[in-house]
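Hi R.,

Here's the chain you asked about this morning:
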Amino acid sequence: MKLRWSRTLTLLPALALALGVTTTAPAAADAPTVRSGWNNYSCKPSADHPRPVVLVHGTLGNAIDNWLGLAPYLVARGYCVFSLDYGQLPGVPFFHGLGPVDASAQQLATYVDRVLAATGTSKVDLVGHSQGGMMPRVYMKFHGGADKVNALVGLAPDNHGTDLNGLTRLLPYFPGAKQYLDKLTPGLSDQIAGSEVLNRLNEGGDTVPGVHYTVIATKYDEVVTPYRTAFLDGPDVRNVVLQDLCSADYSEHVAIGIVDRLAFHETANALDPAHATPTTCASR
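And the predicted structure, written out as tokens:
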């Protein structure tokens, strides 16, 4: 028994870290707060950018740290930008996205309604990193979000789950590990390829009508593996690999959501396709 439990504890930290450490340092104050012009509930969308943008962090991320690069980038371009915390576990500050994906989708539904009420708009655009690019699809398909979302931009999203370069296939060899993961960090289990949540989400097609989808992936992704499992299939979908735009871009899973200016530029293009400009190695 002691040996089996030891094996379980050995594997769990690797799974937790591999499934998306998307923070920099813990935020100094409770999130969300107004930072660099975002999460400002008095912001009113302009004629040029008529919808608020809601940013959805990844696993182990939060409403501030995940967006210290992209949020100010979008605010500077005239967007009303908001971000939320979701998937909190009791006694775990700052590092969220660990709760059940379905419950997180309901949190997103509540938050979107709050943003719509504050801005007086009927739809939002969603931008999510990692789990935050996949979980909104659960919101749209099962929690009434399809009519409230104009576009979803996923930065390295795990739309079809991940095998973590084969690491999840080792779970059967560590008795009790899967049950322990399911109980303590269900948000991690839900992102493993073949999970009940992902099977239900992707059954019958990847998309819902009326939503514009963009997936921005990197071939150096070490978390969402294989990286092409991020891609969606369906009408009004654009799947992008950063290295097809700039072969010198070496961003991996974390960097694509936090610091990659090419990913930021592609995000801006997806939010305003009428004024899109080519993304190149020189894009800023």
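Confidence is low (pLDDT under 50) at residues 1-35.

Let me know if you need anything else.
M.
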